[in-house]
Amino acid sequence: MVSGKSIAIAASVTAAVAGLGYIAYFDYKRRHDRKFRRKLKRDRKKVEKTVQKIIGGAPASLEDFNDQAIELLNKVAKEKLPDSPEEKEQFFMAQVSQGETLCAAGASGYAEAACRFFQALKVYPNPVELVMIYQKTTPDDVFKLVMAMMAQEVRQKQARYFDVFPPKDKNVQIKDKNKLGDKQKKGEKKDEVVTPNRGLFATKDFAANEVIYEEEAVVSTLLPCARNGRFCYHCMKDIPDSKNDEAEPETFADAVKEGLSKSPEEKEDSVTKNDKPEPEPETFADAVKEGLSNSPEKYEDVGDRNDESEPETFADAVKEGLSKSPEKEDVVAKNDEAEPETYADAVKEGTSMSPEKDGEKPSVEAKEDKAEAKSEFTDKSSGAVECDKCHKVVYCSEKCRQDAHDAYHQFMCTGSNNSSASEFFELAKKNHELAPIMIAKFFGVLVDREKKKELARAVGLSLDSSMEDEYSIWEHLECMRYLELIPTTSDVVLMRKLSELMSAGVPGISEFVTGDRYTMLKGKLEYNTYAVVNTAEGVSVPEDTEDTHVSDTMRRSSSSGAVGLSLYLISSHLTHSCDPNVEITFVGNTDKAAIRTIKPIAKGDELHVSFVGTDLDRETRQKKLSGQYRINCSCDRCKAETVASAAAADAEEKAAQDVESEEAAEESGSSEQ
Questions:
Q1: Dist CA 265 CA 255 (whole Å)
Q2: pLDDT of 270-300, one tens digit each?
Q3: Torsion sign (Cα): 88, 94, 97, 103
Q4: Residues of the chain under the 70 pLDDT cut
Q5: How is the chain split among helix, strand and coil, in percent rounded to 5?
Q6: How far is CA 208 from CA 40, 211, 600, in A?
Q7: Composition bias, kind Basic and acidic residues: at what positions (predicted)?
Q8: 403: closest CA among 588, 274, 591, 560?
Q9: Which residue among 385, 399, 466, 488 sits deepest, i.e. has the most Cβ atoms within 10 Å of its Cβ?
Q10: Do the Cβ atoms of 502 and 443 come closer than 8 Å?
Q11: Which residues is 583 bridged to in the sheet?
């Protein structure tokens, strides 16, 4: 039997696929794909026959089927799930065994079999993989019943989303403004479905110039004009020149003035200090705490993989958490094997799934390219940490470089002859778009977060606040507003290039990112991203040019100083007003956001930011809001300015009429004389 440690190791690499959300994909296809809906309709007829047998021959309908799924969910919810890897392993094997026995008993055991298989899914490292196994090995009626339970669980989870998010310590909550009034509107039907109109509301009183909450960006990217080697590609902070390049204070008095602690007798060697390498984490647990991507094999002796026996049957494969199918052939000599195609294959073979093939010796041409590669920046900060492969991105610290590599740059680096990345970036640049780059980064961050969650759980570490969220960032994204866009030819091309770019690190992404989903993601970014503004003294942000201009929509109340754009989970729910009561600022001139009050706010007040420059006139604001966000603003400021404009127009017209009357009177008097 496979050990608990093996399950933990498998979880570290296979959870990435699970993060994409098979059930979200299933539900999305159900709502948008006509062919898929027709297939579901045929499948539902089969399921309804099964339900009819289960409930004693009563006529089965879709509603009966949904009720059955909810009933089964309520039943299994009372069962406690195990915590430790060893207990999960035993629980999983027991649930699968019971499910198989119940299936063999016939249709009368299908409902309980579905419960057992559903519970096995709850503890399996890679639910997506297990769903695929169920689809091939269980009776069709049982599989559909399991799927119904999963779909109902997703709906229940979505229904309580706004009850638990945002966290209470953020001092805000999301409410549907259509439900704020207790009384039913006149003429509104009781069962009428009303589109939610959500906003962000304060849960306590705040004075002017107070910070309500802070939050990290989900994903960010620099504007082309700021990619000059002076701003961090990850956190977007301006990168100061290295202290080694600054003039050394000539006297002790100068040192004191500059806030240095050096005495004439105790000058430290700053060069040696800056070059001192950070200590390597000693254990895998330390590596997880530091957010590194090291695998357990680096710190634990997992034995000689070549001596491990290959599972001979499909049942053995399931026990070991592998994706081996019944038809898989015997493994040949390792030297003759093809490059692993999925994470599961990589885990089994003990190889790496990084964009560069492990063990492959670089060609002569590759060596020459690496030797000739030079930084493309002409004015790069001397304190910048540069990617030593592509030489096209810089970071403010080694931590930012490592975080970026783990999350997305390992897939998106144009170095090491990565033609897919080069073509992808060239197309995005040609179209003057950042949305494709943000989408690629989003999937990288999604996979990285879910993988690190599983790693922490596997080794028994408590999750920090950034990982405790029960919702994946995909589930958060689904709850945001978005613009409905019409896909273009370039969208189709970029979507294909995105799949090619990310397929090595995110198996199954080509099936997951359909045309509709890509357009939806782009619409989410178009509506919800903010321009990140750097206001640091002495920092010069290059102006946009025809070559660096991008067509992406971003919320920005300032017309200058923008270095990039970012997506935030909470702040995306802020609504627009031309007379806002809060503003978004950026902590330390990074992409970390702080929502600060402009005026006093009482508990229960809705929070508003301005999506456009507040210094613009009403006509320009309305044009931008309508064209970019499809908003017809009717805030108090717009109403007041509309009234004032109308009054001014009336006064001007009356004045013109008075002038005409006077002129007419003068002409009449002249003619009489």
A1: 12
A2: 444 444 455 555 554 555 455 544 444 444 4
A3: negative
A4: 1-65, 181-194, 243-379, 462-468, 507, 670-673
A5: 50, 10, 40
A6: 55, 9, 5
A7: 255-279, 297-308, 317-337, 355-377
A8: 591
A9: 385
A10: yes
A11: 596
The CB-side HSE value for 596 (13 A sphere, CA atoms) comes to 11
Run of H or E including 532: strand 530-533
Q: Cα(82)–Cα(550) distance, rounded to whole angstroms? A: 50
What would you report as the CA-atom Rg of the chain, rounded to the nearest whole angstrom?
A: 30
Q: Residue 82: phi, psi to the nearest 5?
A: -70, 165
Entry pTM = 0.70
How far from chain centre, in Å, is Cα 13?
19
> Do 239 and 230 meet the contact criterion of CB atoms below 8 Å apart?
yes
Q: Which two tokens stand for residue 482?
A: 């978005």
CA angle 333, 338, 342 (to 5 degrees): 120
pLDDT reported for residue 664: 78
Which amino acid belongs to residue 65? Answer: F
Report the pLDDT value the prediction gives residue 139, as an integer from 0 to 100.
92
Place of tokens 């170095």: 415
Q: Which letter does DSSP use for residue 409 in this model?
A: I
For residues 497 and 518, is the Cβ–Cβ distance under 8 A? no
Give 605: exposed, middle or buried? Use CB within 10 Å, 0-12, 13-18, 19+.
middle
Which of 147, 150, 149, 159 shows the shortest CA–CA distance to 40? 147
Between strands 394-395 and 575-576, the pairing is: unpaired
CB 607 within 8 A of CB 201: yes
The Cα 477–Cα 522 span in angstroms is 11
From the list 154, 156, 149, 131, the residue with the least C-alpha distance to 66 is 149
Q: Which helix (H) or strand (E) holds 151?
A: helix 140-159
Tokens representing residue 111 in the block:
């409902």
CA distance 163 to 169: 14
Tokens of 577: 């007003």
**Those residues with Cβ within 8 angstroms of residue 558's Cβ, 6 or more apart along the chain or in another chain:** 531, 533, 613
Question: What is the C-alpha separation between 395 and 383, in angstroms, rounded?
Answer: 9
What's residue 264's pLDDT? 45
Both structure tokens of 198: 């959500």
Report d(CA 28, CA 517) in Å as an integer: 8
Residue 241's alpha-carbon distances to 109, 245, 272, 382, 564, in angstroms, are 70, 7, 17, 5, 21
Rounded Cα–Cα distance for residues 385 and 396 (Å): 6
**Residue 103: per-residue pLDDT:** 94
